[in-house]
Every structure is written in C-alpha cells, then in structure tokens.
C-alpha cells in the first residue's frame, strides 16, 4: 500500500472542494472510507457442536451468538462492527417476500437457535448483528454458521458454494476426536475456493490429549496435501481470561494467536487490495481535474486560443452528452453482453443439472435398498451445489469481462473526441477505468486452480456476500441442505411398506427415488434460475451506473473548464496573475497527490 495514501485523500478532497467538484469529492471520500474499513468476510464453519459460536464469541470478547449443549445455531449470522448494537433478522414472510426486522440481542436466541425457532419455521434466511468489538474494528465481518453435521455433505456443499465470495474460512473441529474424512475433504475443497483457510482445534481445556489429536490432524491434512495454518484454542479460557483480565490465561486460551492469524492472513491482504483500489481512484480523479486545470492554465497564458478551445470543449461536451444517452454504443454493448452472459450461464447451468439428473437416474436403476439412498442424496447435493457455484462464479467472471470490454470501447470513443489542445485528448481516459485488474496475488493464485479468476475482481467481499447472502441461503443452502428430499432414507421411504413381492417393492422404491430427484432438481432450477436473473439485472444496472457516472464526471470537467476560461477572459491583468498562481499551486498539489497514491511523477 502506498504509504501516503491517507494524506493523498485528504489533500485531494481539499483541492476538489476548492474547485467545487462535489461529485468527485464524494468519490474521493468513498475511496478514503474504504481505506479505513475495508470489509473482510470470515466464515466460521464446522460440524454440529464443535464450538463455532463459542469461537465467534471468543473473538468478539463477549457472549453474542447463542451457545448451547443442544442444537444452537440455525441461521447464518453475520457479525460486524457497529458502535450502536443492532440486530437485523432477514426472513421470508407468509407471502414469501423477504423482510428485515430489528430485534434485540437478548431476543437473538428466539431467531437463530433451534430452540427458539425449531425447524426454522420463522423462515429466517440470515441475521446481521452490529456490535462494538476490537477485532471487528478493522473491518472484519464474522459469519457464524449452522452446524453441518448429520447429512453433512449437503450443508457442506451449500457452504462451499458461497466460499468464492468470502475472504477467509475457519473450520472448527474440537479436540475430542480426529478430523473425519469429510472434514478433511471439505478443507481440501475450501482451499481451492477461498484465499485463506484456517483450521481451529477447539475446546483444548476440555481434552488433555489435544496435542496428540492436533498431530494426528496435521498428518491427515498432510496426506491430502492440505497446507493450511492450524491453531488450537479454548473459547472457555478466553472468556474467563477476559472476565478476570488475566493476561496469562488469555495466552493459554491461544486466542491471541488466532487473532494474529486472521489479521495477517485475511485482514492485511484484504486491506492491501482495498488500498490498491483506493489509490487507483485517487489517481484517476487527480488526472481528471489536472486535465481541466492544465487547459485553463494554457488559456490564461495564451488567450488567443480561447475561441478555438471553447469550440472544442463545446464539441467534446456534446459528444459526451450523446455517450451518456441510452443509444450510445457502449450502453447497447452492455445490454447485449449481459443478455449473452445470462443465456450462456443459464444454458450451462441447465445442461449441468440435466447431467446430474441423468447420473442420478442411472444410479436409481441400480438401487436395491433404501439405505443406498443416503449416499445418493449426498452425491446429488454435492453435484448440484457444484453447478450452483459455477453458475454464480461465471456471472462474476462475465462482469469483469464486460467491464473491460466497455472500458476499451469508451477509451476508443474518447480518443476520437476533439481536444482543445491538439489532435488527441491530453489525458489518458483509461485511467478513469483503471481499477479493473486488482485481483490480489493470493486470492488469484488459489482461485486460478478452479478457474475462478476474476470472481473477486473489483467487488468487495461484503458486497458480494450481501448479494449472495440475500438469496444463496434461500436458494442453495435451504434447498440443498434441508430439502425434505434429502433428509435421508427414513424420511423419504418411511412410508414404504414391506411388500410381499420384493420385485414390486424395488420398483416402487426406484419410482419414489426418481420422483424425489426430479422434484429437487426442478426446485433448484427454479430458485437458482430466478437468482441468476436477479443477479444479472443488478449487474447490468451496476455497470450502466458506473460508466454513466464516470462520463458525467468527464463532461462536468469540460463544461466547468469552459465556464472558468470564459470567466478568466474577463479578468484584469492582476487577477489573471493571481489565477495563474492558483492553478499552478493546485497542479503542484495534484502532482504530489498522484505521487502519494503510488503513481509516478506526473
Ligand atoms: N470447555 C469448553 N467448552 C466449549 C468450548 N467451546 C464450546 N464449548 C461448549 O461446546 C458446546 C457447543 O458450543 P457451541 O459454540 O454452541 O457450538 P456450535 O458449533 O456453535 O454448535 P451448533 O451451532 O449447534 O452447531 C457448548 O456447550 C459450549 O459451551 C471450549 O473452548 N471449552
Ligand atoms: Mg453455533
């Protein structure tokens, strides 16, 4: 991160205020805010009762998430920093619409726990909590998730499907036993989807043999080639230590080590990423106002060019007016590309799901006893979740590609525009769209292996997650994990009476299984199809807004330069000298700002 970035933002805002550019000032301020608190999403996942919620509480240093010996967490819970504590429950109402309700922290149990909300009959999709906490202050957002036990694969698959959009993952498993094969497999897949994966061995105060378990786990992971940081912690000791303000006990809880790991491996890289984006914003804004000021300065020094220059500015303005209109080529391009993307993603997704269905139908033909169903349901869940992930990842990849293409087109159109001072415009319009390829090294490296490059591109984790979180738990997690179809052989075939005729029984069994598969696949296609449609529409709006805003900034720069030049023409000689000094001073500031923001000398 360029060291003087904070200072660059402050100075830039000052220059912009002097110029009365509130539009750019807002963008610069946003860049500054992003710098202070980039949002970093860390998901805490694991089998039932391993101590996930306790670990989140340990990190927060307070009892926020409900903890219980019995089933506790039943909904995804996002905890972010907020000076005023607040809890928002997002759920579906009776008519299926998503509603957000404010509740108190004391009432939380009634919403996110199995006890207070059995079988999730309140249809909670997600809960968002704001609390004041030191670990969150840097922009960390912790996500507590329901246990993925029992028929684990479904939930695991659903969790994996939103991992490309998280910055970090902590898998929690307690020291009572070694990691199970599914846990190891989950970790292996997670490392392909998420830039930072940690393993936390919990409850070490409870199991004196935890070191042995730790070593066994290390060996299991090594065998599968999973190379991730491991930390052993005790949430019980942590809370005790904080209550007693006992430093040694806090060390013994090993939470300081976990917090350090999160800071070094998740928060710092995310911060660097955010800083790069902010720096790019700062440089592009500085370059834009510099163009206007240089033009004004040139006219102050040589008023004879005024007429020609004003004509050029006017013409550029008219062209930009057209570029901002709905008929502009880039705007049509956005529409076309987004439509193509939507078709392609839907086509692939449907194709993929059809293949899954065929595979399952074949397996059903071989099925002889209800017990085989559990394994098949797991396969079904995993394969479907894979396709869901791929579909969303493809949309995100598409977003990056379209954005680049539009930026390229606009750059060409811009270069064809008349310039007040010569044959081609004097500044690099591409700078305006510069922040495209900012996939951080580490994220890029891992994501590459699964072809997910670009997914995390210009979007921040929280934005993505907000988007995904809005419907993924509904469309994928709920569907994939708790669909009645997949609740196991007992639930599905419980009604199947032992028939005298074994042949008839097997036929009936297969018939039921086929129906279940079809029903599930139809539901997923419907829900996910809708979600993709929604996402794509949003994407189109975002792209249009972004480019329209940039064009508006450019247009305003030209318009104001023309206006200022006309005002300057009426000045006395003294005033001209003063204005020259002012513009020179502003130009010097801008050079300094660009340098502080990591740009070379202007
Ligand atoms: N002694 C001890 N007990 C712990 C520790 N962490 C969790 N527990 C206990 O383990 C039980 C489960 O803890 P939770 O934090 O609710 O576990 P969870 O993984 O969130 O559970 P679900 O959300 O239901 O899957 C509770 O009784 C906790 O008190 C620990 O570090 N030490
Ligand atoms: Mg829990």
UniProtKB/TrEMBL annotation:
Q: Which UniProt keywords apply?
A: Coiled coil
Note the SUPFAM superfamilies from the entry.
Answer: P-loop containing nucleoside triphosphate hydrolases
Question: Coiled-coil annotation: which residues?
Answer: 544-582
Q: Which InterPro entries match?
A: Dynamin_N, P-loop_NTPase, TRAFAC_Dynamin-like_GTPase
Keyword Methyltransferase: yes or no?
no
The chain positions of domain Dynamin N-terminal read: 42-190
Mind telling me which Gene3D superfamilies this protein's record contains? P-loop containing nucleotide triphosphate hydrolases (3.40.50.300)
Organism domain of life:
Bacteria
The family database entries (PANTHER family) matched by this protein are listed as: SARCALUMENIN, TRANSMEMBRANE GTPASE FZO
Please report the name of this protein according to its UniProt entry.
Answer: Dynamin family
What organism does the record attribute this protein to? uncultured Acidimicrobiales bacterium
Name the lineage.
Answer: Bacteria, Bacillati, Actinomycetota, Acidimicrobiia, Acidimicrobiales
